[in-house]
């Protein structure tokens, strides 16, 4: 049975990608160039590109062209409590430790700090009045210099008024905000509640994560509300993970040390 023209074009492009002739992340030739190279019609070339796109081998960005998808090595993220850090403690240090175990290079942006009015979910989770001021700390997190997750934490402005003034500094809190609040305000994080949802990315997220225009990659949104031993909410953190590059897992109870194995860079 003869192979259709568009499929033979798609197969040849795959060979070029696998063989390194067209590098990962590189732009494919334009439609016109492909028409000339393969002596094919515009519709035939488009069918070939559509087939590659459906298999997430290439991505098309409006006004920019079609690019070969980068090979993504998933990053395993442990969401359960870390030994010695308490329930929900050390989110940042756990992220760094997980990356190092997997031979990956973690990095984070300096926090973008804003003082905002609490609305809707933020006000409810922090148990404060709508319109009350909160401090938001937003960071971009990368693995091997590639965008991997976005995280925004909200804290009552009352914490700043009580002495936790470093919350409004646009620099990383080296010891971690959880430990800082314990040291400065005596607020010991005793537990947390997670809500996990799946949703499509918005435009800003699509640009940051370099996602396909058709939004075929969904986002995993983890909303974590942490509580002090008094029952007082001390932070509300929203972390966004693209599903194409993250594996989320929990360890509950007595679990062997070799828990999740993900092939990463040697």
UniProtKB/TrEMBL annotation:
SMART domains: HTH_GNTR, UTRA. InterPro entries: Bact_HTH_transcr_reg, Chorismate_lyase_/UTRA_dom_sf, Tscrpt_reg_HTH_GntR, UTRA, WH-like_DNA-bd_sf, WH_DNA-bd_sf. GO terms for molecular function: DNA binding; DNA-binding transcription factor activity. Residues 3-71 form the HTH gntR-type domain. Keywords: DNA-binding, Transcription, Transcription regulation. Coiled coil: none annotated. GO terms for biological process: negative regulation of DNA-templated transcription. This is GntR family transcriptional regulator. It comes from Actinoallomurus bryophytorum. The lineage of its organism: Bacteria, Bacillati, Actinomycetota, Actinomycetes, Streptosporangiales.
């Amino acid at each position: 049975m003869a192979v259709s023209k568009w499929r033979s074009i798609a197969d040849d492009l795959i060979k070029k990608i696998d063989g390194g002739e067209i590098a990962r992340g590189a732009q494919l030739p334009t439609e016109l160039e492909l028409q000339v190279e393969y002596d094919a019609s515009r519709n035939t070339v488009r069918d070939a590109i559509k087939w590659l796109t459906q298999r997430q081998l290439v991505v098309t960005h409006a006004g920019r062209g079609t690019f070969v998808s980068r090979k993504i090595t998933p990053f395993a993220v442990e969401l359960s409590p870390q030994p010695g850090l308490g329930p929900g403690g050390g989110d940042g240090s756990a992220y760094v430790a997980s990356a190092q175990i997997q031979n990956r290079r973690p990095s984070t942006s300096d926090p973008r700090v804003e003082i905002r009015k609490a609305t809707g979910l933020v006000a409810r989770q922090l148990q404060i009045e709508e319109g009350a001021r909160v401090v938001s700390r937003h960071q971009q997190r990368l693995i091997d210099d590639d965008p991997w997750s976005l995280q925004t934490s909200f804290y009552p402005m009352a914490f700043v008024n009580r002495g936790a003034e470093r919350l409004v500094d646009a620099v990383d809190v080296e010891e971690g905000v959880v430990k800082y609040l314990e040291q400065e305000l005596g607020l010991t994080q005793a537990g947390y509640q997670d809500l996990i949802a799946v949703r499509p990315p918005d435009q800003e997220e699509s640009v940051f994560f370099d996602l396909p225009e058709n939004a075929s990659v969904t986002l995993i949104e983890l909303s974590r509300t942490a509580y002090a031993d008094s029952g007082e909410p001390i932070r509300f953190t929203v972390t966004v993970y693209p599903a194409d590059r993250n594996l989320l897992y929990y360890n509950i109870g007595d679990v062997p040390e070799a828990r999740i194995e993900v092939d990463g860079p040697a």
